[in-house]
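Tokens for Transcriptional regulator, AraC family. Go.
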Amino acid sequence: MDIMKTAVLILPGVLDISLGITLDVMNTANRLCQLAARPALFDVTLTGTGRRRERSGSGLEVGPLARMSDLPAPDLVLLPGANRATRGELEDWLSTRDVLKAMERVGGWLEGGAAVGASCVSTFALAQVGLLDGRMATTSWWLAPWFRERFPRVDLDMARMVVSDGPVSTAGAALAQADLMLALVARHGSEELARNCARFLMLDHRVSQSRYAIASHLARQTPTLQRADRWLQTRLGEPVTLAMLADALHMTPRTLSRHFASAVGMSPIQYVQKLRVERATQLLETGHASIESVAAQVGYADPSMLRKLLRRERGVTPRGVRPRAGRAATGE
């Protein structure tokens, strides 16, 4: 393993928890390398576009920062997330001179052979200057519909927690930065080193962010999705078909399917399944009904279908969802 000259880019409003986990994973990896009598993996420099210090999203000062223009070309460039949660806040942040200037420099480093890792809204910064065009990438789940609309040349994958395409790796929101960092440790160090970092920092291995997405929040993206969500929420215990939903919204099934695909990246039936899993999870967490009863309440006569969806969407079994006290009451 060769030491990686690593530039951590500190932009205005950098997300504190994202920056912290970035530095903690690298520090842990370096300590573990030293304990094994091997050279450190990361040579870390905090960098920015010019100011000596930058304010984080919670108002803390981060620094001292080296100027990007003064740095030798790094081997690895890391972009933690930023504390910009709404579309308006994000649009303002993306249009700032700091972000645009920084992405110009990152593009040059990428062209020169550097690897790049970004999470949360920093993926938007890469995408707006074309650095993700033609690549697979991911981003914060609640911003995915806007990302698809704004950057159609990016192949957005919202199923995985971390997506690597060539030298560029992207991840979801906030603590997905931990998953990104462990993936980079595995890629540039070793799988064993990444596993040991995860153990020392008590980080779980997570491969998908779909379990964290809230379907009804995604539905707020368009009036059509809002109407669909309202109609479905009152019929989760009933049989629902694409034709029935399309008829209720006065659309053809084909048009409705296209609308769902472009807005939230899933089919109407996949959306129904996500709603049912969310309702079932709530029922299992807060009540004592059997899995058979819960399955029936969310439209599945066969509880094995609900078990399958829980494993796929949440990575758990019904027993894993229910609080410990509830398991004893239901005999699970």
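The chain is about 50% helix and 10% strand.
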